[in-house]
Specification:
It is globular, with a radius of gyration of 22 Å. The strands form 3 sheets. Strands 1, 2, 3, 4, 5, 6 and 7 form a 7-stranded antiparallel β-sheet that branches. Strands 9, 10, 11, 12, 13 and 14 form a 6-stranded antiparallel β-sheet that branches. Strands 8-15 form a two-stranded antiparallel ribbon. The chain contains 6 helices and 15 strands. By secondary structure, the protein is an alpha+beta fold.
Amino acid sequence: MTTNDALMRLGASTAEAIAKVLDSLCPDQVERGDVSVLNPDTSPFATLEMPAVAVSVNYVDGVTGGNVFVMTARGARRIAASMMGAPPPDDDETGLSVLELSAVAEAANQMMAAAASATSVVLGQEVEIAPPETRILETSADAIDAFERAPHGARATFRVCDESCRLVQLVPNAFIVRMTRALDELGVEHVSGGGAPGSADETRDSIDDGLALEEALREIRVRVWAELGRTRVRLGAAPEMPLGSVLELDRKADDPVDLFVNGLRFASGRLVLTDEGEWAIRLAEIAGREAVTTSEPRSMTEGAVS
């Protein structure tokens, strides 16, 4: 297993995991590009379209290294709009609102968790990550200065909401040693060759990797919330509202309540009160199909959703 083989294997597995998360946030708006090994003499951030938004994480347990996901500022705004169920912005504004930054940070949490899960599958051991850090990059020099050089790395490109994005994996020497050893112990074939493409062994390896990655992604925790209704107020009027103000929503009290996973509507139901005095949702419809009625309502808490 050569260094380039290991980097390509890591990049391909992580790109697949990231693409699945992006597709859940922006359905039918994600195109995967290529995966390549970085040139150690060239910064992977030198050719970015600016301004850009970069989200980075470092591994804190199991292995060392880090991931950086970079998107154009316009792309970040479009991803945020898709997550919130809003139409894409039709202006050229590159500044992000607090709400847009919050949505992008939530998307980054999921993408980085998926990347760590994919890395865990490749290594055969658990990988923990630090909380993501979000930066606004105005120039390529800002990007080059923001992230330390690493002796190895891989890059995966995407096109999301008609905007270019890329995942950059910064890999130190210690990570390469551990990764190549783990892959050799697992008997993984070289990415660049070995068996004939489409052979039974290659197909079986691909299926096994896909199943392992799918299982890992199922354990990613996502935010689930209910929406009772909406209304609009002028931004300038919101801070001036006195305590006790009443805002009329666009739904009646007995209308169904929508459930969202990270900004995407996936179910609806009725608001009920449990025996313990907590609010909960009794699901009536999930992803366009009627839910199976159960005696216990679903609590409105954060948890793992597959």
